[in-house]
Write a structure and sequence with these properties.
four-stranded parallel β-sheet, 15 strands, binds 1,6-di-O-phosphono-beta-D-fructofuranose
């Protein structure tokens, strides 16, 4: 494939590995661990992988003295799972280099098009010449990705056939919270059966919601938010030049508002909704609309009939009335899957007939296309496909109506003209920033060390991320430690607890301190495109979220 000039230059970039991983390592075990919630239940469900200790790698200074005979030789399989995130290729490159550093004869197989590749035995051996073409590039096209959910014993057994055939010792699943949940289930299954196959995870997702005390961020968040912030900044500058449009920009990120918040901290828009705050304050759709309309009216009073509004894509699920509605719809869809096949009118009738009175009201307050979206599509993990719901349009239509009412009462004088944008897929396959390129390479390289030390049911963990990469800490975290029980597809399931925006955390607090000023005045910041070369502060900056969480 033809490479752009930037890609050619970028191919030569050497990710900066934490110094602890520069040579042989040994794993230091911590205390036995507990899950973050529902400990008794999780323990029962994961008798073989619950309570494992945290692992931290330290330099093995007397490794050379201990060496007797040849190092162990093993094969590893790798899977990309779920939505694309910048840096996935570097995880695979790091894993490959880590395996080869342990023993040149180690082999790496890539399962194709996501977890389905393991079940269907679709794979490719990843050789040096093949992967070299993908170093520091965005995308998941090296082996493809998919959203097949690995959860049934039949799938695990099919996987085992090819694992045995290729003499694979470990599977590394690069995925988000749902995929890592399934990695833990698979690890438990093989351990329970006493088959010597390790399963490890790597924290991927632009959404930034797979994080906790031990996993400081998921990869891809840094690059994706840099791309969106460039676009938001460009639009803000356009708005400030023409002074005639209000831009409603929906941002990807599924449930959590980490992406919207990070972009707000970078670009200082006039308004940014944070779904977690909407839920905490028990706000209705009308409350949000009234608040935005107030900002529009105040700016109009200053002669500014333009502005920028950031909308997190998961908003709808956080409005308490909608949340209740969606929960009932989820259970209804699990119980009556035939709803999905019904004609629109029949479907509407069926849904309305089965909803509680309160939920019918919430349902009927929505435009027909949003109603249909909510009662139809779920992804294989049972999530509402929020990317497909046009909340930005819904909000601006409602704001427009509200402003008309305010005009009649003499509370608003101005012109309101709205434009809409959705930034999501634009950012998922960008070439990884230096941070993501380094972080991903380290996650993969570290995963090879976890295989080597026999760990299973662990997530590759690289910490201390606000510091320069050579100071990063490397190790492994038992995945069961991140578990709690949640309602999925109508049943209680053990899952990794999703990290939502912490309203008491520094990133949100900093935003909250400044937002009144950003709303009334025009304080836009224009971050410009991701930079790969140049001064440290230009090309090696981490996200504001990470900065405020750790340093600020
Ligand atoms: P992951 O959790 O799999 O990383 O998904 C990220 C994401 O980009 C979400 O932000 C978004 O809601 C979803 O994927 C879109 O899914 P799809 O790629 O299937 O349209």
């Amino acid at each position: 494939t033809k490479k752009s000039v930037l890609q050619q230059a970028r191919a030569a970039y050497q990710p900066k590995l934490p110094s602890v991983l520069w040579g042989p390592v040994k794993a230091v075990k911590g205390e036995p661990t507990q899950s973050v919630g529902d400990q008794e239940e999780i323990k029962k469900l994961f008798p073989n992988t619950y309570g494992l200790p945290e692992l931290e790698f330290v330099k093995d200074t007397d490794a050379s003295k201990k060496k007797t005979g040849k190092p162990a030789k093993f094969n590893v399989g790798v899977i990309l799972s779920g939505g694309q995130a910048p840096g996935g290729h570097n995880v695979i490159c790091g894993l490959f280099d880590g395996l080869k550093a342990l023993n040149k004869e180690n082999r790496l197989y890539g399962f194709l098009m996501g977890p389905g590749g393991l079940v269907d035995h679709k794979y490719k051996e990843l050789t040096a010449s093949f992967i070299n073409d993908y170093r520091n590039t965005g995308g998941f096209d090296m082996i493809g990705s998919g959203r097949t959910k690995l959860e049934t014993p039949e799938q695990f057994e099919k996987g085992l056939e090819i694992i045995k055939e290729l003499d694979i010792r470990a599977i590394v699943i690069i995925g988000g919270d749902d995929s890592n949940t399934n990695a833990a289930v698979l690890a438990e299954y093989y351990k329970a059966k006493n088959v010597p196959v390790q399963v490890l995870g790597c924290p991927k997702t632009i959404d930034g919601d797979l994080k906790n005390e031990w996993i400081e961020t998921s990869f891809g968040f840094d690059t994706a938010t840099k791309v969106y912030s460039e676009l938001i900044g460009n639009i803000e500058r356009d708005a400030n030049s023409a002074k005639k449009y209000w831009h409603f920009m929906k941002l990807m990120g599924r449930s959590a508002s980490h992406i919207a918040l990070e972009c707000a901290l970078k670009t200082q828009p006039n308004y940014c909704i944070v779904s977690e705050e909407v839920e905490a304050k028990n706000m209705t759709l009308n409350d949000i609309v009234a608040d935005i309309a107030k900002v529009v009216a105040q700016r109009a009073a200053d002669g500014n009939n333009f502005g920028s509004v950031l909308v997190p894509e998961g908003l709808i699920e956080f409005i308490p009335a909608m949340k209740k509605l969606i929960a009932q719809l989820n259970d209804m869809l699990a119980e009556h899957p035939e709803i999905k096949q019904m004609e629109p009118d029949a479907q509407h009738k069926f849904v309305v007939d089965h909803l509680t009175k309160e939920n019918v009201e919430a349902f009927n307050s929505l435009p027909v296309d949003v109603q249909r979206q909510l009662s139809l599509d779920r992804d294989p993990h049972g999530n509402v496909q929020v990317s497909l719901i046009e909340t930005e349009k819904l909000l601006s239509d409602m704001v427009e109506k509200k402003l008309e009412q305010m005009k009649e009462k003499g509370e608003y004088v101005g012109k309101f003209s709205a434009l809409h944008h959705f930034f999501g897929y634009e950012g998922r396959c960008a070439d990884p920033s230096n941070f993501d390129a380094d972080y991903c390479y380290a996650l993969g390289y570290n995963a090879a060390q976890l295989v080597n030390c026999g760990a299973t049911g662990y997530m590759s963990s690289i910490r201390n991320l606000a510091k320069p990469s050579i100071q990063w800490i490397a190790g492994g975290i038992p995945i069961t430690m991140m578990f709690n029980m949640e309602q999925r597809n109508g049943k209680q399931k053990p899952v990794i607890r999703k990290a939502l925006v912490d309203l008491n955390g520094r990133p949100f607090q900093v935003f909250a301190q400044h937002r009144a000023k950003w709303a009334r005045e025009t304080c836009y910041v224009y971050p410009g495109p991701v930079q790969y070369f140049g001064p440290d502060e230009v090309c090696n900056q981490t996200s504001k979220t990470l900065y405020y969480e750790q340093e600020g």
